[in-house]
Write a structure and sequence with these properties.
By secondary structure, the chain is mainly alpha-helical. About 50% of the residues lie in helices and about 0% in strands. It is built from two helices and no strands. About 0% of the residues are buried.
Length: about 80
């Protein structure tokens, strides 16, 4: 193959990745990253209200949207 014909650099294949691999191993073992903090009850209530507002816009937003901002759609009056 073409890659086998290239001159060797004298570097082991794992040598480049060993530092990166060690970094991610230390990162995975770091327990301080996985600790949770106790949040304020008021913060939880606000968070729930924000999520409810987002869901309301998702489910009902189309009913308040201006779907014809240029006024090109002609509606016929039904008597």
């Amino acid at each position: 193959s073409m890659f086998q014909q290239l001159p060797g650099t004298g570097v082991k294949p794992d040598q480049f990745h060993s530092k990166t691999r060690d970094y991610f191993r230390r990162l995975a073992k770091d327990a301080s990253r996985y600790t949770s903090s106790i949040s304020d009850p008021d913060t939880n209530v606000k968070q729930v209200k924000v999520l409810q507002l987002i869901n309301a816009y998702r489910f009902r937003g189309h009913q308040h949207a201006n779907l014809d901002p240029l006024g090109l759609w002609k509606q016929e009056r039904v008597a």
